[in-house]
UniProtKB/TrEMBL annotation:
It comes from Nostocoides australiense Ben110. This is Sucraseferredoxin family protein. Pfam families: Suc_Fer-like (PF06999).
Length: 167
């Protein structure tokens, strides 16, 4: 659980209470230094799956982590999987939102098309409810804004919009 207050105080303010609640329930909860994605705090890196979960607080974290351990990642809290490309992560999240929670790290995505400079078609397989999902992923550059609690400089960020093409 990220609780690195030196990099961004939000990580400590949001992360430490989550770490405390999870440590009451699970033996292997550690507070760690910065894992990135300040704007998604509280942030958790679940090992060994490499799944990033975010937007956690002391109330939501126990259920989100229990669901992850049961193989049901909630797309509202899923930030991605370390082994997946960002475009694939977005497509996997869209697949989970459309077809129900599943283990994100078990889904496989492959970029199968690139119809425009900031658009990709991604094929996602491995979801128990559907054999294959094709997702269009569009890269969006967000306007400069504070991206951390103590941000003194506005920064540009990237996000991805998705649309299911077919299944």
């Amino acid at each position: 659980m990220c609780s690195h207050g030196t990099h961004d105080q939000c990580c400590a303010v949001r992360g430490r209470p989550v770490a405390a609640v999870l440590a009451e329930r699970y033996e292997h909860v550690l507070e760690c230094s910065h894992v990135g994605g300040d704007r998604f705090g509280g942030n958790l890196l679940a090992l060994p799956t490499g799944t990033y979960l975010g937007r956690l607080d002391a109330d939501t974290a126990p259920a989100v982590v229990a669901a992850h351990l049961a193989g049901r990642d909630d797309p509202a809290h899923l930030r991605g999987v370390t082994t997946q490309d960002q475009r694939v992560q977005a497509a996997v999240t869209a697949t989970l939102a459309a077809y129900g929670a599943s283990a994100a790290y078990r889904l496989h995505g492959e970029i199968v098309g690139h119809p425009a400079p900031d658009r990709w078609h991604v094929s996602v397989t491995g979801h128990p409810a559907v054999a294959q999902v094709r997702v269009e992923v569009r890269r969006i550059v967000l306007s400069p804004a504070p991206r951390a609690c103590r941000a003194e400089i506005d920064k540009v960020a990237v996000t991805y919009e998705t649309a299911l093409l077919d299944s």
